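Hey, can you fold this?
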Amino acid sequence: MLRSSFLRLAVLSFTLTIAHFSMSQVTTPRVPSPAANVTQTVGISTVNVNYSRPSVKGREIWGKLVPYGWNVQAFGLGNSAPWRAGANENTIITFSHPVKVEGHDIPAGSYGLFYVINADNSGEVILSKDTKSWGSFFYIAANDVMRAPIHARDNSMTETLTYDFSNVTKNTAELDLNWERKTLPVKLEFATDEIVMANAKEELKGARNFNFVGPASAANYALANKVDLDQALIWSNQALAQNPSFAMVNLKANIIKARGDSVAATHLIDSALANGSENDLNTYGYTLLLGGQVDKAIKVFTMNTQKNPKSANVWDSLGEGYFTKGDKKNAIASFKKSLSLNPNAATRANSEKFMKQMGAM
């Protein structure tokens, strides 16, 4: 009995000594598989991979160092396990928002990332609840969140294991594990429009809603991406109440038009033109011109010259409107008027350029 108690005390003393020694060590480089961290933004969502990077060092990797298929671990639970997808601790992947991984819906959060690779390049990617294990030695299949088939690609030589992202778009990306002469690709997809809209609603519960820029930027995103236009109209009204400018009226009108009421949108714009500044009218005129509404653009530019007859810039813009229509006579007259008003260097150069194109200089 005494001997048993002595052994327990000895084990406890040894454990405490080791723990104390571990906590007392200074931080030193981790070799030969240094830690790494890579992050990619997709839309407004982030994907982060935290891993350790082994190197080939002349070794045979696939089928040897990384055995093909599922493998029984040398210690731990003696269970059949996948590859740890790196070295040392678990490779951890973290998603800031819900995501589809190879078509599977995965909640936001952190997951252990594992792979299985076979001799024919077929394989699996696995996400697990286990995020604090040492490699896959203590892998428990019941903790898997997802398994999905993947297919490895042959690639150029990568000496040190590297995670990278390719084919990044607004909604999607491919996570690539590159090592030796293989790439193990995993497809990721975010519902970016839904994520942006939900995030905007949350952000506009705070200080951003006390400035017109917040709701205006949210409304502009919804309009540009044709998503939840009813909410976009609410945001445009909030922005307009704080900043009753022509730009905010134009934003609201465009949303109304996108919702299918062109008549109401046109009436709203026409009623606001009378109060528009020189820059407002000029910007709106060019918007119409670039959109192919040449006659309407000329009408707006003409209104601007009536409101600001001594501005060389507005006569220059009217000249561009007539030039686009092919009305050479009125274009020359407008550019001559611009040049007679002592324009700045940029406006003068623009008017002279068009005059030369028409053979009027």
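Oh, and this one too while you're at it.
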Amino acid sequence: MQTNDIGVFQRIPDSDIDRFIEEDVPYGDLTTHLLGVGMKEARMAFSTREETTLCCTEEAGRVAEKLGASVTRLMRTGTLVPAGTTFLEAQGTAEALHAAWKISLNLLEYSSGVASRTARIVRAARDANPAVTVATTRKSFPGTKKIVIKAIRAGGALPHRLGLSETVLVFKQHTVFMGGLDEFLKGIHGLRGRAPETKIIVEAETAREALQIARAGADVVQVDKLDPGQLMKLVREIRSANPAVKISAAGGINEDNAAQYAAAGADIIVLSSVYFGKPADIGVQILPV
């Protein structure tokens, strides 16, 4: 068992936890009420059915606490655990635990699925190229950003862009308003002067454009949808043209090919694939005390 120690993981706000509860239990639990078991003392345990990089254990515990239960065991976000590990336990009334059950389970399975896929990709990429950075895109499902950013960090990746407000990433969809890539690159030094603390990233759609962008002095050349063999050749050419520029590879990178893209020499591999896939397989027991 190990923990991905990359600092303090962000805390999902109480307002979000309250919203999750409100969505699922707006007027109490009708089933436990009608069965007359709501006030019986019980315990709830979450355990893994497969190797898992845990995520949102803290939030799952806070759901239980907000509903009146007490957390008695909790392993932190970022911990890699084998199958069969009990990582979160809570005690309270059956009413409280049944209300917390699926909200907590959904949080854990979704976020830990993203974290586990991310961790596997990061391990594979760094085995091929220890210096590579794995970054994830803005293509998460709307409304899930806080959870998925926590999850990809738990897996050892970084966000490529948290949003439009803090990064400069220039696409063809921008340069088409400026007379094309050639005209934009003529003014790249002026752009840097207007945002001196911000890296300028420019996406290339072809190898020729990538070399042109590197020679013009961008901080990062983002190369889209080249296969690993083409990328390896291009990386050598870019390094020769501008040794200082960083090279980012994006487009179609996933668990099956991330190591190949890392081995091709990219400084950064950018992907969305970690957001989409099966949830982590987590079991739950609720038993009377």
